[in-house]
Amino acid sequence: MKETRLTTGLKNGLKGELAVPGDKSISHRALLIGAISQGKTVIDHFLKSQDCLHTLGALQQLGVTITEQNSQVQVWGQGIEHLSPSAAPLEMGNSGTTTRLMLGLLAGRPFESYFQGDASLSQRPMKRVSEPLAKMGAEIALTAAGTLPAKVKGHKLHGEKIALQVASAQVKSAVIFAGLQADNPTKIIEKLPTRNHTELMLRQFGAEIITAADQRTITVIPKPKLLGQQIQVPGDPSSAAFFMAAATLVPESSIILKNVSLNPTRTGFLRILQKMGGKVSILNQTKLSENSGDLKVESAKLHAIQLTAADIPAVIDELPLVALLAARATGKSKITGAEELRVKETDRIATVTEELSKLGVNIQELPDGLVISGSTKWQPVTNQLDSHGDHRIGMMLAVAALCIQGSLELQQADAVKISYPGFFADLQQLIV
Predict the structure, then answer these.
(1) If DSSP codes are grouped into helix, strand and coil, which group holds residue 322?
(2) Is 257 helix (H, G, I), strand (E, B) or coil?
(3) What pTM was estimated for this model as a whole?
(4) What is the residue-wise DSSP string for 135-171?
(5) Nearest CA to 154 among 193, 195, 106?
(6) Residue 1 above 70 pLDDT?
(7) How far, in Å, CA of 411 to CA of 279, rounded?
(8) Runs of H (alpha helix) within 259-377
(9) Helix (H, G, I), strand (E, B), or coil: what is residue 330?
(10) How many angstroms separate the CA atoms of 160 and 187, rounded?
């Protein structure tokens, strides 16, 4: 368990430019779709986080040739029918994305696969994936609690109309991967629109994925001919969000974050920050594989916000940061409809409440969210903070520390490597 002393009490603000690492969601999907396509897929600005490397390793276990050179990865695909069974269990580590998407991918392969993960991942719910896949003919055995380890016995799958019970891009993507292998089209109906990276990328590779005008109904046409592509991974907006929050909260800050994804399903944090009074402008917009651009962020005084269930899917990974913004804003903020936070890497409602309370924040835990009374006059009750092994909690606390005088220590700081191995070095780069 590694402890890190956090930078506190900045007086001169954050300054400069930073290129944040490649998007985690896109990096995962580029590997998976490249692996089931014909020919070479080249992925530039690939995110070498622990989660993405577990996807890479699992595909290699299934017989896919993948080579790496700096931040570029080449996937030598031979089509989905060339995936082969692994002699050893597929190692998922802490990656829910790897697990859920690969459950859908392997449900239609004619062999058995075994999935295992670390202690944290092995507590996260997987029935939300296995149940809709079962309607398509999949056979997935989980523990009695509905968790890993899992055994997938591949079968021929049939197209179905699947109404998803949770607003989750991971669950949707699992069904899409299964639908590619089905005998007839699969229609997916979401409760709320979620990240659409899987649909966009599959179309680029040659699949027919039809999204209705309501943005909630997706039709998957099976048996596409997928061809390898060149993928330029934009900067991860969930990673950029930590620096957006830091520059907003620390007085006298002005930074530019280069080439950040502006996919509309991923700009929820940006919209919320602007709604709270944040100063963010978009520069140099481009469109390669997806929309991207540079973000200029300056310090600003914030006001409270009210978020409900309809707001949550677009900002699910950034909600700990939204809570931090609310804790420094004027007025009382309320977040509801966020019960999905209970089943992330940690129970993020509980861990955000516990850790921000240590800093003197007036925060109340709700069954599905938080109530936060904002103040810039925090009185920490301890100098010992803890990521609880959750990468996003750890990075949020590092941003919070910038606003506080005195010494603060972060337990389990290594958790940030799950999504952002260079986070502390990049933060230091912006400190004048």
Answers:
(1) helix
(2) strand
(3) 0.93
(4) TTT-EEE--TTS-SSEEEE---B---EEE-SS--HHH
(5) 106
(6) no
(7) 32
(8) 268-275, 319-328, 348-358
(9) strand
(10) 6
CA distances in angstroms from 329 to 204, 301, 338, listed in the order given:
42, 7, 20
Over the stretch 172-207, which tens digit does the pLDDT of each residue have? Answer: 999 999 999 999 999 999 999 999 999 999 999 999
Residue 185 to residue 188: CA distance in whole angstroms: 10
Strands 186-189 and 209-211: unpaired
Cα dihedral 16/421/345/23 (nearest 10): 60
Selected catalytic residue, list 317, 386, 390, 414: 317
For the chain, first and last CA: distance in Å? Answer: 30
Nearest C-alpha neighbor of 153 from the set 143, 139, 136 = 139
Encoded tokens for 197: 């990276």
Residue 119, Cβ neighbours under 10 Å: how many? Answer: 8
Average confidence (pLDDT) over 195-220: 97
Q: What does the pLDDT read at residue 290?
A: 85
Whole-angstrom distance, CA of residue 338 vs CA of residue 333: 14
Distance CA 319, CA 321 (A): 5
Judge whether 426 counts as a catalytic residue: no
Q: Confidence class of residue 211 from pLDDT cuts 50, 70 and 90?
A: very high
CA torsion sign for 191, 197, 198, 200 is: positive
Nearest one of 19, 31, 25 to 263, comparing CA atoms: 25
String of DSSP letters for 306-319: EE-GGGSGGGGGGH
Q: Is the bond preceding residue 193 a cis peptide, omega within 30 degrees?
A: no
Name the token pair of 21.
């690492």
What are the pLDDT digits (tens) for 118-144?
999 999 999 999 999 999 999 999 999
Number of helices (H) and strands (E) in the chain: give both, helices first: 12, 23
Q: Give the E-state strand segments of 349-426 in sequence order.
A: 362-366, 369-373, 384-386, 409-411
d(C-alpha 18, C-alpha 192), whole Å: 33
